[in-house]
Amino acid sequence: MDDAHPRPRSALDADAVRAAYRRWARVYDSVFGGISAFGRRRAVAAVNALPGQRVLEVGVGTGLALPHYTKDKHITGIDLSEAMLERARQRVIHQQLGNVDDLLEMDAEATSFDSGSFDIAVAMFVASVVPSPRRLLGELKRVVKPGGHILFVNHFLATGGVRLAVERGMARASRSLGWHPDFAMESLLPPEDLSRATITPVPPAGLFTLVTLPLDGDK
Ligand SMILES: C[S@@+](CC[C@H](N)C(=O)[O-])C[C@H]1O[C@@H](n2cnc3c(N)ncnc32)[C@H](O)[C@@H]1O
Hints:
By secondary structure, this protein is α/β, with parallel strands linked by helices. It has eight helices and seven strands, in the order ααββαββαβααααββ. S-adenosylmethionine binds next to helix 1, helix 2 and strand 2.
């Protein structure tokens, strides 16, 4: 753990992520697809409304979002889990999604893309799963061009009440869950980004939040 990249109390490493999603892949859509559908649709609608065609979807998973992009957006999806990616590939074939350019096994914290390769990067329910959310943010800032946008939709730790206590308790099960229930927004965004991001609660019951971070244009 390093101070420049604060992690939730029970951060997962890449092998734990792969192991968790190898187990989840078969049932992911039926267990998690429903509750997260609204947040995913909101994030994709926000992407569709932004300028630029080159979209990087990090932690694309089983590809639940892929059918919802407008056809002018060209999507590259990456994920650590080959088992999840295989589901996404089947979806692309069955639904004939011609605007999905690539689905690649790759670590979102250290990609092989050139700087400025994308207009938009979007991470749906991923920021609380990656080993180091700040490294993820740094890498997305590198691969998105100046003037582009980075979007996150995620569950963030409650700031008080019963939900805070429950989420702190659930954090002990992070490794088997494959995500961190105790993931605070500050673990992802430093104060300077928090102050200029657009933060929108999304249903159900504000459980998820959409964060849109605009990047500075060319200097
Ligand atoms: C909760 S699932 C979300 C999947 C999809 N975005 C959705 O909306 O259903 C999290 C995904 O992030 C992937 N993941 C976790 N850490 C990653 C990393 N460092 N690089 C790429 N993918 C990662 C996992 O393998 C998993 O498929």
